[in-house]
Amino acid sequence: MASENCSDGGLDPNPCYLQKFRLYETRSHFYMIGRDKNRTDWRVLKIDRLEPSELNILEDSTTYSEIECSDLLRRIHDGNRSTGGLKFVTACYGIIGFVKFLGPYYMLLITKRRKIGSICGHTIYAITKSEMITIPNSSAQSNMADSKNEKRYKKLLRTVDLTKDCFFSYSYNAMHSLQKNLCKNETGLAHYETMFVWNEFLTRGIRNNLKNTLWTVALVYGFFKQVKLSVSGRDVKLTLIARRSRHYAGTRYLKRGVNEKGRVANDVETEQIVFEDVPEGCPTQISSVVQNRGSIPLFWSQETSRLNLKPDIILSKKDPNYEATKLHFENLARRYGNPIIILNLIKRFEKKPRETILRTEFAKAIRFINKSLSKENRLRFLHWDLNRHSRKATNVLELLGRVADYALNLTGIFYCQITPNRIPDGLLNLSCLMQNDNSEKLEMNAGSDKQNSTENVKPPMFQNGVLRTNCIDCLDRTNVAQYSYGLMALGRQLHAMGFTESQTIDQNSLLAEELMVVYEKMGDTLALQYGGSAAHSKIFCQRRGQWQAATQSQELFRTLQRYYSNAYMDAEKQSAINLFLGHFQPQQGKPALWELDSDQHYSVGRHDLLNEGARTYFKRSMSDGNILCPMGASNVGHHQPLSDYRNGATRDLSDMPTPDISYSRFTPRLSCRQLFGDMQGQFPESNRICYENADECNCTNFDMDWLSSSGNSCDGDAYDRSITGLSSEIMEIIGAELRIDAATSPSESGSSIRGVDRTASEVTCDGLMDVYSEKFVDWVTNGDLLFPMNLKSK
User: What start and end residues bound the annotated signal peptide (predicted)?
Assistant: First the structure.
């Protein structure tokens, strides 16, 4: 981010943000002139061009006026007349970073940008054009500058297209969620060290040298889309952001599962922000909700094959105690708090076991980890075979919406009101919030000479915990589930803002269709990045009523496109990513990147990584970069176990004292009748809830497949058998456990408007006992087994 406090520390009420730059050159130096938006502050950066292989940067500490800066450039020109004077090179909008291969250093610049949205007045930009400029002049360059390998490295780096899916902001920390931005005060240097800044390595040298981020921008890679919606005659802006992690980043078959440091492939944070579209200077409301997707955190792989569209899944047994899996969930707890809810969408039955291998092992890992955790911190694990149900008449989106409702009851959403006179020119922080500790009326200054007005200020709400969704690739099925979650969350966001009376949005409404379009675009973008083709969107196409033949041809084309990309393009794409992220650093006398296998290059040019001996049993599992608690409390150690994260002990999304919203995990607004709906008569007698004996496994492992799946047989005929009815045995258990009246109203089930505004003290387990059984409340509260008995299948 090209921003920094002008003071030497702390938060400055008037921070300096350089947004436009001009690059000049003499024979011996580059001079970069940067100015702020208002053309009041001008700064100068000096880069040495005589050193052939080192990077020497000096920053002038003086803040100039425009006239003073022009005079300085004139004097520099006069002093260099004998060697050609001062020449203009290019206008630019920030430094992406510096990179070195075998010869000289290169500077990467943003030369064109475009606005793609704004958040609370802070503009978000995308890159339209970038340039790579050689630092040393031609006479100072070594022979390596024109070597064959040097040119090949330059060409490889240029294949990383920064004009696609990268975004940044000068005054808003786009690498963080809205809640993190409002609830954390961090320096500009710390922002670059988070997992979502993709040019962290490229900017490391200049940041460490200058101790600021005035001249650089922090690039986030993923997806950004902002649209305007109309709700009850009022305009709101919806922003969907996907942030892809730079840790263990890469392509589909070359990056699978987890590595030794607990980082997973295709790790993407998705944030949905909604705020009222009001004129500048007016009070506004804003809400956000965060969800996560990522590869199954086990050691597994699939070897790329040009002869097989579906390569075998290879599961490694190198981590019998699931240490890497545990590290992954500890990191999620640091970033988002508890509870961690896992929605596993992979197949339950297969003629030839592939996905089911991972399904079984993933469940074992969760059970193993949960044994060491306290009840309140146990991982909530939900199985649901989306592929199975998408081929049936089951309303997949409706069932996923019920899962989303369950998750949102546990985590809550973020919501606050912002006063216009408290929005600083710099980054958002807690001073922006309308606050009323007594939940009474707050008298606010409207910023005019008129009399003060009183408004009813709602207390802020905070999200604690996250829903983590996965399938095999975390692309197609996962995107459908994330849309369902986003739709359910949007209903709650609009309700919190007072735009709707209900917390739910009709799936057939125009609002749902508009949201589906945005999520479908996000799914296509993320699938192209990781998988090489747009996402398979059969469910979305069916929802829109698209002609079935057209859908099938589209799906076939995308399958072939993905196959071609994986088999022929991904190796070079992976090498380019490794080069850009600094996972591979070329060195003279060492093998070139293209001379190495994919499991070798991380040990070249790096000194802080595990040795190859630690990776004897599994390839493609290494990654560079450090997890520095990007969304959690910085004082939490990297190896702090999940069991240390007690309720209320830490605010992983907020360090501020906040109203305790953990009551949401005590208020299961999703009643049994709502959860099962009209599906109660469609379950087969052979259906089984996949729980082990409570004595053998004390964990939360809630299998959603029992909602509408058939029996356990992998036989093809049995697999395609029509769904009949639910056994009386299971119905008796459901009735005995939940004791839900068939005529339960929305308000009785806890989904009324009043339910959202209640405080923690108003919601008690005793109040729930009138509607829910003790075992059900204990399961929602503490994560115990919902059905601790074995069910026999016929």
Answer: none
In whole angstroms, how far apart are CA 366 and each of 471, 686, 695?
Answer: 16, 25, 16
**pLDDT confidence of residue 645:** 41
Cα(213)–Cα(216) distance, rounded to whole angstroms? 6
Q: What is the pLDDT of residues 629-651, one digit of tens each?
A: 333 333 333 334 444 443 434 33
Q: How far apart are alpha carbons 59 and 70 in whole angstroms?
A: 17
Distance CA 655, CA 634 (A): 10
Q: What is the mean pLDDT of residues 585-596?
A: 88
pLDDT tens-place string over residues 371-411 = 999 999 999 999 988 888 777 645 888 899 999 999 999 99
**Range 38-65 average pLDDT:** 94
- Residue 390 CB partners (closer than 8 Å, separation 6+): 396, 538, 539
What is the per-residue pLDDT for 90? 97
Q: Which residues of 6-34 are buried (b: 16+ CB within 10 A; e: fewer)?
A: eeeeeeeeebbbbbbbbbbbbbebbbbbb
Residues whose CB falls within 8 Å of the CB of residue 790, separated by 6 or more in sequence, listed in order:
691, 693
pLDDT given at position 15: 62
**CA distances, 684 to each of 64, 579, 687, 709, 794 (Å):** 77, 53, 5, 8, 10
Judge whether 704 and 403 are in contact, CB under 8 Å.
Answer: yes
367: left (phi over 0), alpha (psi -120 to 50) or beta: alpha
> Under DSSP, is residue 447 helix (H, G, I), strand (E, B) or coil?
coil
Q: Which residues contact residue 786 at a Cβ distance below 8 angstroms, ignoring those fewer than 6 apart?
A: 702, 737, 775, 776, 779
Task: Give the CA distances from residue 486 to residues 182, 344, 651, in Å, rounded to whole numbers and listed in that order.
Answer: 21, 17, 23
Instruction: Give the closest residue to 242 by CA, choosing from 196, 210, 192, 279.
Output: 196
8 A C-beta contact, residue 220 and residue 174? yes
CA angle 785, 786, 792 (to 5 degrees): 95
CA distances from 117 to 109, 172, 231, 447 (A): 21, 12, 20, 26
CB-based contact 483:522 (threshold 8 Å): no
Q: What is the mean pLDDT of residues 536-542?
A: 67
DSSP annotation string for 40-60: --EEEEEEESS-SS---EEEE
When computed from its CA atoms, the radius of gyration of the chain, rounded to whole angstroms, is 28
Query: CB-based contacts of 155: which residues, under 8 Å, 6+ apart?
Result: none
Q: Residue 640's closest CA among 298, 326, 292?
A: 326
DSSP structure string for 176-195? S-HHHHHH----HHHHTTST
User: Are 515 and 506 contacting, i.e. CB atoms less than 8 angstroms apart?
Assistant: no
CA distances to 7, 484, 570, 763 from 749, rounded to whole Å, are 54, 21, 50, 13
DSSP labels, 591-641: --GGGS-TTTGGGSS-SSS--GGGGTT-SS---------TTS-TTS-TT--
Cβ atoms of 200 and 238 within 8 Å: the answer is no
Triad 459, 460, 464: Cα angle to 5°: 135
CB contact at 8 A, 110 and 94 = yes
Start-to-end CA span in the chain (Å): 62
- pTM as predicted: 0.74
Tokens at residue 427, please?
Answer: 């980054």
Q: Which residues are 166's β-sheet partners? A: 221
What are the percentages of helix, strand and coil residues in the chain, rounded to 5? Answer: 35, 20, 45
Task: Mention every residue, 6+ apart, whose C-beta is less than 8 A from residue 678.
Answer: none
CA distance 495 to 475: 30
3-state secondary structure of 396: helix
> What is the share, in percent, of the chain residues with pLDDT greater than 70?
64
Omega of the bond leading into 424 within 30 degrees of 0 (cis): no
How far is it, in rounded angstroms, from Cα 685 to Cα 791? 11
The residues near 68 (Cβ < 8 Å, ≥ 6 apart) are: 42
